[in-house]
Each structure stands twice: as C-alpha cells, then as structure tokens.
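Hi R.,

Here's the chain you asked about this morning:
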Amino acid sequence: MFCRNCGVQIDSSDPFCVNCGAKAGPTNSISPRPAKRGTWSVLVLVLGAFFLVWVLIDTQSSRSSKVENSAPEAPAVAAQETPAVVSHKMNETVQVGVWSYEVTRVRWVSSIGSDYTRELPDAKFLLVDLLIRNDDRTPSTLAPLKLIDAQNREFGESSKGALLDGSFGLLKSVNPGVTSRGTVVFDVPEGKYVLRVPGGFASHKSATIDLE
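And the predicted structure, written out as tokens:
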C-alpha cells in the first residue's frame, strides 16, 4: 500500500510511514499520489534566478574589460613650460618684458627708518638699490620682485620697507619712458641671493640678477 501523506509505498504491517512518519491506515491502500514538489520547485527557481544574474554580471564585466583594454591610452599631459630665466650681473641693464632694471648697490642693515619710526627685521634687512624704467606705452605698476637663495627658496619684499626713504614700496607706478631710482627691502637670513625681476604683471618672462 501507499502512504496517504507522501505517497511512498510502505508495507501493510507498518503502523507508520517509514518516509514521513505519518500514521498508516486502511486509507493508505488507495492509489498513490505524487510526492509534494512545491518546496523543490521554489528552490529550483531561486537557484536558476541566481545563476541567470551571475551570467549577466559576468557578461557585462567581460564587455567592460574589453572596452577598457581596447580604448586608446590618453595622451600624457605635457609638462607646464617654465619661462626661461636669464641671469645677469650688477650694474648691467636688464630688459625683460616692458621693464628695464639695473642693480646699482646691495647692502645688509640691522634696522631701517628714523629714530622715531625705527623698524627692526625678523632676520636681517637686505637693501637693493636699483634703477627701473617703464618701456611700455602706458603707465605701469612695478610687479613684486623676489629673492632666490642657493636652495632655490623664494622670498618676497618686506612690508617694513615703507618706512625707508626712497623705497619703491609695493605699488610703485612709473610713466612710459621714465626711469626711477629707488630701493627694494627684503627681510631674509644673511646669505647669497639672486634677484628675480619680472617683465610685468601680464608677462610670463623674468630674469635674474646676481647680487654679488
């Protein structure tokens, strides 16, 4: 006979089904019914869905890899060109951009200003006397000058230079064709430097002047 619960064939002398444990009885002699397949069907569907998703992901990954491998390499970004810097000596007229420069004297001092407005440096004051000429066709403001040391470190002008008579200051304006004499003040450690002079605010050109 057959179990009425799971449909498995069992011996008529067994009180319980050896497969599902259901109680055997006279009704188990009826025709067998197919075993339940609901759980197995759901499991098969879930596994199939996972397999399909995996296949789709793998296919997409393969396509992306092929596209990346076949894509041409991006051209290397060209290094930014550094403007050429030409070195000159003191008492030499240096023309760069719309300006001309001539360093006439360099000196180290421990203070600047008068007795009532004396200013002390953080390191030491380096005073650079020079002539400048505006070679442009319009009035121009002198761009900041820089000092460069042996380690290629860059130093800007000191705001304390405003107390020095004859200082160019930070906003010195010169008319076309006019030559002006003045001093640029730096507050830097004592050492060897070159002066970097710019061609103007709108110019990328510059030159250096050895201060020895």
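Residues 38-70 form the longest helix (33 residues).

Let me know if you need anything else.
M.
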